[in-house]
TrEMBL record:
Source organism per UniProt: Acetoanaerobium sticklandii (strain ATCC 12662 / DSM 519 / JCM 1433 / CCUG 9281 / NCIMB 10654 / HF) (Clostridium sticklandii)
Domain Polyphosphate kinase N-terminal: residue ranges: 9-114
One of the GO biological process terms: polyphosphate biosynthetic process
Stated name of the protein: Polyphosphate kinase
Keywords of the record: ATP-binding, Kinase, Magnesium, Metal-binding, Nucleotide-binding, Phosphoprotein, Transferase
Gene: ppk
Length: 701
């Protein structure tokens, strides 16, 4: 192809919607336990909320600003928004069809019911009345709109009830609104006979008793509605004297951003809709009539009801590391590099590493980056204890981790109180790399131990995110890690790293050179193969380079869970590129990069996806897998992902994903396999270090 070749691209936003469709398919999959299907539906709803708050909001901002540049797929912002609106309407329809026609009937078969007010028994009506006056009524705040009381600013994502009223002296109907309190349970268990479980939604109880909030007025009409707002923070980092204070102020504004979506009940009258539109804000392409309960994210809490374990996936408790075979982690790392594969191997190994470092008299310093941590983080506790024990503890807490800013601010302040040196991120960049450095004195020498991972230091998400990590005392990696932390904590500029590559300095260039090397090798007859596993592939220049590699004969296999802007199977451009997506009970999160390299295989792991934000606007880390046993293990993992038949979808040039044709293939759910495989090795006291028989298919094969 020439430099003037017009390469094909999928639109980023439409590709994301197809990912959310794959999540919805898990809610539709009858092979999944019923409560897991409810959970997948809740995730679909939550994902769509964030999509509107960030991606659709950004497109709206571009349209308002008159931005007229086309994206890589050739679409203007307005064209993107029009296509998004069409696809989301289809997706919302599918979502509620799944809820009403599949999940609700399935719940009934398990004697679980959501009751409508008209179907309540006398006993239940009495219960609901008492519940309303004792639990709900004191919390409600009815707000009438008239000349003296303007239309209130509706809180982002809050569920509300719009009411049309008429008093004795009113000529025209009066509009009022009541927020359904988010501090109360969305679903309430009703008294019922036998072993049945019957629930009623909170908004239905409020509707039944709405006349008690407007005594002396006639209720003409009422309906639930919900507004989604722009929640992408705009932070003036250069002009902010105190980044912490600036972000704290920006978080408060998130609740009141510009409206981007209006959802309302199917039976909502046009009069109510017109009133909301007239008195609040316009919703450009963002109005959705909902044929069921608004905001299905409540199903996530419903999933957590006790007593229904038989309707959920079998509980798979993360297993001990199969490569850490003694209690002294420093000794284990000194013997050889340790690879971890979460959640199949427990995150406790990482927590124990920090805890041991905190209590070890020979440890002098601990340095760590934190992007997202849990609500009660053992990592934070261990770092605080290390500081209290007199160790030099430096922690970079990324305050700009979207939707975790408030949580991170709390932890940052707690670490400071414990005596840690806390860095509040870098101006203009998000620090997304996962890096932990422990400096230890051993026999009058300084030795550095390093943990590098693809996932966050979060003990909660580590139980259902698949991630990989390397723990090493390689002196070159240790020196590189020190250089990275010096850059993060001061004004030091990285001149040269021996083993690691970081963004936005050299990571992009490193991957580009590795791809170009495969192109050269293919053209010279040595064969070429690339296998990438990541969350998203968006970067235009990287995609163009992969197209060039395909044209040169390089065999390319991509395992991409989410967004993929690359078009596979395109004649004369990407005929050598295969794209697969795995969506299952665990969130695929690891990033692995394999290069055949004429038989001298190179394997890397990274915190980065191939997206402009990761490569150009974040501090990211790319690190090599050099231990031969670990390389064999990663190749085994890659091959198994490529062989999955249960949760894999294959992307076609049309943008459509299809299931794997299982004919002639051995059934394989790769996520279940990994857990069973590791459990088997532990049960049989098998030494994983001896596994070397796995290797990827070569270019010639």
């Amino acid at each position: 192809m020439t430099n003037n070749t017009v390469y094909p691209f999928f639109n980023r936003e439409l590709s994301w919607l197809e990912f959310n469709t794959r999540v919805l398919e898990e809610a539709q999959d009858l092979k999944n336990p019923l409560f897991e299907r409810l959970k997948f539906l809740a995730i679909t709803a939550s994902n769509l909320d964030e999509f509107f708050m960030v991606r659709v909001a950004s497109l709206n901002d571009q349209i308002i600003a008159g931005y007229s540049k086309k994206d890589s797929a050739g679409l203007l912002p307005k064209e993107q928004l029009d296509r998004i609106t069409l696809r989301v309407h289809e997706l919302v329809s599918e979502k509620y069809n799944t809820y009403l026609r599949s999940l609700i009937p399935a719940l009934k078969k398990e004697d679980i019911y959501f009751k409508r007010p008209k179907n309540l028994t006398d006993e239940q009506r009495n219960f609901v009345e008492k519940y309303f006056f004792n639990q709900i009524y004191p919390v409600l705040t009815p707000m009438v709109v008239d000349k003296s009381r303007p239309f209130p600013l509706i809180l982002n994502k809050s569920l509300n009830i719009a009411i049309l009223l008429r008093g004795n002296e009113d000529i025209e109907p009066v509009f009022a609104t009541v927020q359904v309190p988010s501090v109360l349970d969305r679903f309430i268990l009703l008294p019922c006979e036998n072993d049945k479980k019957e629930f009623i939604l909170l908004e239905d109880i409020i509707k039944i008793h709405m006349d008690m909030l407007f005594i002396g007025h006639e209720i003409l009409d009422m309906a639930c509605y919900r507004i989604t707002r722009n929640a992408d923070l705009s932070i003036d980092e250069d002009g902010a004297e105190d980044l912490l204070e600036e972000i704290e102020q920006s978080i408060k504004k998130r609740k009141w951003g510009n409206a981007v979506r209006l959802e309302y009940e199917k039976n909502t009258s046009q009069e109510i809709i017109d009133y909301i539109l007239e008195e609040s804000e316009a919703f450009e392409g963002g109005m959705y009539r909902i044929g069921g309960p608004l905001d299905l994210t409540f199903l996530m809490k419903f999933y957590n009801l006790k007593g229904y374990q038989d309707l959920k996936f079998e509980n798979q408790i993360p297993l001990p590391s199969i490569t850490v075979q003694n209690n002294d982690i420093f000794e284990a790392i000194s013997e050889r590099d340790i690879m971890l594969h979460h959640p199949f191997e427990s995150f406790d190994t990482v927590v124990d590493f920090v805890r041991q470092a905190a209590d070890d008299d020979n440890v002098l310093a601990i340095k760590q980056t934190l992007y997202r941590v849990s609500g009660n983080s053992p990592i934070i506790s261990a770092l605080a204890k290390a500081a209290e024990n007199g160790k030099q503890v430096t922690v970079l807490v990324e305050l700009k981790a979207r939707f975790d800013e408030e949580n991170n601010i709390i932890w940052a302040k707690q670490l400071e109180k414990a005596g840690c040196h806390v860095i509040y991120g870098l101006v203009g960049l998000k620090t997304h790399c996962k890096l932990l450095l422990v400096v230890r004195r051993e026999e009058d020498k300084i030795k550095r131990y390093v943990h590098m991972g693809t996932g966050n230091y979060n003990d909660v998400t580590a139980k259902f995110y698949t991630d990989t990590a390397i723990m090493t005392c390689n002196p070159y990696i240790g020196a590189d890690a020190s250089a990275v932390f010096n850059m993060l904590s001061g004004f030091s500029q990285i001149q040269r790293l021996e083993k690691l590559d970081i963004a936005p300095v050299g990571l992009r260039k490193k991957i580009e050179n590795l791809i170009k090397n495969e192109i050269r090798n293919a053209k010279e007859g040595f064969g070429g193969q690339i296998i990438f596993k990541m969350n998203s592939l968006v970067d235009e220049s990287m995609i163009r380079l992969l197209y060039e590699a395909s044209e040169a004969g390089v065999n390319i296999k991509l395992i991409i869970r989410g967004i993929c802007c690359l078009v596979p199977e395109y004649p004369q451009v990407s005929e050598n590129i295969e794209v697969k997506s795995i969506v299952g009970k665990l969130l695929e999160h690891s990033r692995i990069f394999y290069f055949y390299n004429a038989g001298q295989e190179k394997i890397f792991m990274s915190s980065a996806d191939l997206m402009p934000r990761n490569l150009d606007r974040r501090v990211e880390l790319l690190f090599p897998v050099e231990d031969e046993c670990n390389k064999a293990r990663v190749k085994n993992i890659i091959n198994l992902y490529l062989s999955d038949t249960d949760k894999t979808r294959i992307l076609h040039s049309t943008g459509v994903y299809s299931r794997v044709d299982k004919r002639g293939k051995e059934p394989l759910n790769v996520q279940d396999y990994f857990y069973d495989y590791i459990k088997n090795k532990i049960d049989n006291r098998f030494n994983f270090n001896e596994i070397t028989e796995f290797k990827p298919r070569t270019y010639e094969e």
